[in-house]
Amino acid sequence: MCRTLATFPTTCLERAKEFKTRLGIFLHKSELGSDSGSVGKFEWSSKHNKESSSFSEDVLGWRESFDLLLSSKNGVAAFHAFLKTEFSEENLEFWLACEEFKKIRSAAKLTSRAHRIFDEFIRSEAPKEVNIDHETRELTRTNLQATTTTCFEVAQGKTRTLMEKDSYPRFLKSPAYQDLAARASAASACTSSCSLAEPSHT
Predict the structure, then answer these.
(1) Range 44-80 burial, b when 16+ CB lie within 10 A, else e
(2) Rounded to whole angstroms, how far apart are CA atoms 99 and 49?
(3) DSSP secondary structure letter of residue 3
(4) What biological-process terms (Gene Ontology) are attached (predicted)?
(5) pLDDT confidence of 18, banded at 50, 70, 90?
(6) Which one of 3.40.50.300, 1.10.167.10, 3.40.50.720, 1.10.15.40 gives the CATH number of domain 6-197?
(7) Among 72, 93, 37, 30, which residue's Cα sits nearest to residue 184?
(8) Is the pLDDT at 165 greater than 60, yes or no?
(9) Is the model's pLDDT at 134 over the cut of 80?
(10) Alpha carbons 42 and 151: distance in angstroms, whole number
């Protein structure tokens, strides 16, 4: 990072500021309920406040693999915001609900949450019914008879595959992400060039 703002090109400062604003707008509508594995709104972490280049790398990393996108809190929020524009956010919300479900240690809570997830995402004509085949739906129903942390494993895997092959490529090609990635690249380039310009001390 530059030692002082005076040594940082004005265009770079403007780009970084514009990048942050654009991302905030892009993710503004991204809110998930606590039952679906809350992601919340986009947040600038302390690390990103201190090192904008790390955040640029995070954004650019989302196009490297679907796993990197899902492992990024902001990536998940951005992907969710995109899915909402396509009215297809239920698959991601189900995947997130399953991730939270697997962390439950109480048997009573596990059973209760399993039925809530099934009613919300799996049963026919559920409020947020996910796109899975009949066999997977019935297998999941059967699994609820003896609830374990793996009872949604097959259904979760199929919705993940569907998102990776269908929604994820469209997300990467979307004007919103393309614009975001371009701004991240510009912000990263500015930070790099500014760092290179700093005098070294021996």
Answers:
(1) eeeebeeebbebbebbeebbeebeebbebebbbbbbb
(2) 28
(3) S
(4) G protein-coupled receptor signaling pathway; negative regulation of signal transduction
(5) low
(6) 1.10.167.10
(7) 72
(8) yes
(9) yes
(10) 31
